[in-house]
Amino acid sequence: MLVPPAAGIEPSVRGQQTQRTLLVVDQERDRDHIERAFDDEPVIIETAATLAVARSSVDEIDCLLVPSTVTDNSGMTSDDVAATDRSGEHVGWLETVKTDTPALPVVVLADEVTPPLMRAVRTYEWTAVVGRDEPRERLVTCITDLLERHRLTSLSKRSLASVELTGDAVALVDPTGRIQFASRSLRMQFGADDDELVGTPWQELFTDDAVSHLESVALPTVGEGWRWTGTCTGQRRTGVTFPVRVRLGGLEDGSLVFVVTEADASASGHDD
């Protein structure tokens, strides 16, 4: 069965802009410059005199902007910090912040972007570095892109969680043909452990005959922008086969969405 794609249901990459809060640490002297940089962005700029003050407010902000020379009250002098920063060795404060709030986007503002500093920053998720002398547009782009990626990732996690709540047996397959996400219902249906299916080819869910049918009939249909529904034969991890009804759709990036339900034994043949 061919099903036309529903119009207007695909969300845009960038949703409606919402107001974000950027907390800038130890940069009162640069506040006007930073605020001007974000004139055209829905961003509220707040400042904190010290990192300790900033850490007490992380639950109320969306992003933290910190100079690489800041300290976490370790007793180092500013000269000591500047010297160690130039060698890329002083990033202890970053470890402290990311340990406490690993999902908080953090941008490091550096006097000098050294390779050791870059390696240290890349150690942590949701962290980026910008040179102080770079154009302010670069700072804006870095922060807004980081926030947008963070928003989309959070949205994806919520979407996958909602799939779990529906109880549908769903598999999300990436453009390379490997399973990226398998709902609990689907894992139970195919007799797989929690992460056993992730990274495996989608073809392992079906018999060879069913795979041939899906590749020759269903995938071309999806490639033309339609959704396909039909029956074929699934294969559990134990090798046991069973009749399934498959709903198959495609996403703009080439990913596939399989919704698989167990069918009556009389429906084990192909139906398109």
UniProtKB/TrEMBL annotation:
It holds the Pfam family PAS_9. It comes from the Archaea. Residues 157-223 form the PAS domain. Signal peptide: none annotated. InterPro entries: PAS, PAS-like_dom_sf. This is PAS domain S-box-containing protein. The lineage of its organism: Archaea, Methanobacteriati, Methanobacteriota, Stenosarchaea group, Halobacteria.
